[in-house]
């Protein structure tokens, strides 16, 4: 019997599909403490691993004495690089094409590097035994400054690369040089500068920071020697990539390697790479024949897992006297630490930094990035951004402000003058990116009207005219464009695997569904938003659609979740798989209704005969028919798999404005107002988007206002606890105002662009712009982050603005 006829609007509401602000399906178990994280995994006979780490940044290992540790009750093994050499596992490949020591092989390259591992009955015995391992070091001169690292007489950091003049990304011209990567047209950019009536330049340093997810990294490795199978539960944002690398390292066939990423307590790029701790736990399980758990502590996480940023940037703009930009040049020294362990597409060792022309129609541009080894922790991950996009956006937005200041132009006016215009899309930038869609002027006007921008500037002018004003007022404006959704396999791969993604959908006979993806959520709400895409495409309520990710034994191969690629790539795979099912369902419905397929219309959740609303079949009815009595010549069942290789990136954008007040006596900064407008194309769940934006803005606030990882001259990290490293709480976090426009991506199946990275990318230069703007009347063009109260107070004093 047909279901009761409800209005299309009522049925749309019941689906809770795309556009609905439905509650997150996953939250019920999380708020009840029913999450399942790596440290919750317990196995029979499980042992625990701890790591002996180097207290110095650069030294030769003269001797390792294991005797005291091995004599402790409950200790099963102490392993060093010498023990891994017979297995050829003492070094491992990085995702950037370099190699990294699993355990220090005769030399340590950074403080807290892995030197030995201890396996014991519990983590407390393992920790005590790790402390009992005696290591004798011959300390060497450490090199912390990348500029110093490139000097002719600088100490050699990577002796394993001695004599190698070619790296994974081209020629090496110095023993501490990793690569030099260029993009754009240097000759055209140089010509633009040679003829330009106005030029500006600015050096800026984007400090080293750490993603610092709430859950640290860890794994539970279990090797079955009888079956020859390895199962590893791991905190990974890319479980299939881990499976491939583990198989390559261990020699175990990939078909016998199972990687499971259970619930993950935040990633932000920190959990994309493969860490020595993972490899060591796997080796220990293979050697001992028992499950081995390793979970790092907070100090280990901050000190030894992948950092972000650490870019020394020199930007230049050429322009006309009325502010039209003619050319852009950028030179970067990139500190990669002791090993090149970035997680960037193979062809782009500096990631997508060449998005540094931003939202602007710049006819000539060139950038050059030089990667350098130093005695610091390796990494360089995309901390809530898409492969160095954060650095690129910061660079261009700061440079536009510098140009505006030189020309005495308003920050909004100069941006509007240089915007890529709506009618220019699709637009090819000077760096070769094809921007898919955008309407920057409409978004800018909306923000300026919302905050009454002229009134803010008038208030600022009045305060500047008052020498007794207790505060300085700053207004920061940023108009940024991202490149996300890596990526087209023709130009994007990691270790030779194209950066496609995948989805498998299976409709059950009773009309519910299960979907499996090659991505893995770390708090983005995939179980909800992915179900909403399917609900809209197939007319099945999102509540009865189960979404599974993270288990390589069931999920189709995918490249994981990072760089805002979940919706742009996996979301597209979901839509395309659903459309394959939809096409088959239409055939079945036509058979059931005894009409041709062309005689059917689709409405919300059913196929209707054209001109007769009373004759229809719902998707649930079609599903039953697919398993009960499908048409002749059509195989039973209703399921599909799709691997989506995007034809292009997507280009979300935003307009952010910050108003702040600086106390002239203390340097303390109060964020008075922060208005964030984002355009992520089609909006799947506005409530989840709002949450993602709030989270990204808060992380951006942390980076701009307090986060840094300073090292002393000997290579000691000076802040590796949460007493030193700034994570804002609700007390410090400002109030956020959010807004949006919608400019769908023309090449994406549902028009979506991705959003979770944007607030982090856009907010950081906005805070900096506001801080600098407060000092601009004193001729200040730039102040490096972080903008802590003490650093701001020093700037007040330097420029005679303190009280």
Task: Explain what the structure shows.
The chain has 803 residues and is of the alpha+beta class. It has 20 helices and 34 strands. The strands form ten sheets. It has a seven-stranded mixed sheet, with helices on both faces. The chain has a five-stranded mixed sheet with strand order 11-19-18-17-12, with helices on both faces. Helix 13 (440-451) crosses helix 14 (453-465). The N and C termini lie far apart (80 Å). The model has no long low-confidence stretch (mean pLDDT 97).
Low-confidence region ranges: none
Mean pLDDT: 97
Helix content: 25-40%
N-C termini distance: 80 Å
- Spatial sequence of strands, sheet with the most strands: 3-7-1-16-13-14-15
Annotated CATH architecture of the largest domain: 2-Layer Sandwich
Provide the domain count. 3
At the fourth level of CATH, the homologous superfamily of the largest domain is Aldehyde oxidase/xanthine dehydrogenase, molybdopterin binding domain
CATH topology of the largest domain: Aldehyde Oxidoreductase, domain 4
Number of helices: 20
Q: Structural class of the secondary structure composition?
A: alpha+beta
Brief synopsis:
The chain contains 20 helices and 34 strands.
Helix and strand topology:
Blueprint (H helix, E strand, L loop, with lengths): L7 H8 L11 H5 L15 E7 L5 E7 L1 H4 L4 E6 H4 L6 E3 L5 E3 L5 E2 L5 E7 L2 H10 L1 E6 L6 H4 L16 E2 L2 E2 L5 E8 L1 H10 L2 E12 L8 E7 L4 E6 L4 H12 L6 E4 L15 H13 L3 E4 L2 H7 L3 E12 L5 E11 L28 E9 L16 H19 L3 H8 L8 E2 L5 E2 L4 H12 L1 H13 L5 E11 L11 E2 L2 E2 L2 E7 L5 E5 L8 H13 L6 E5 L16 H28 L6 E4 L2 E4 L2 E7 H10 L10 E6 L8 E11 L5 E11 L6 H20 L31 E4 L17 H18 L13 H10 L5
Parallel strand pairs: 1-16, 14-15, 18-19, 26-27, 33-34
Antiparallel strand pairs: 1-7, 2-6, 2-8, 3-7, 4-5, 9-10, 11-19, 12-17, 13-14, 13-16, 17-18, 20-21, 22-32, 23-24, 25-26, 25-31, 28-29, 29-30, 32-33
Helix pairs in contact: 11-19, 13-14, 15-16, 16-17, 18-19
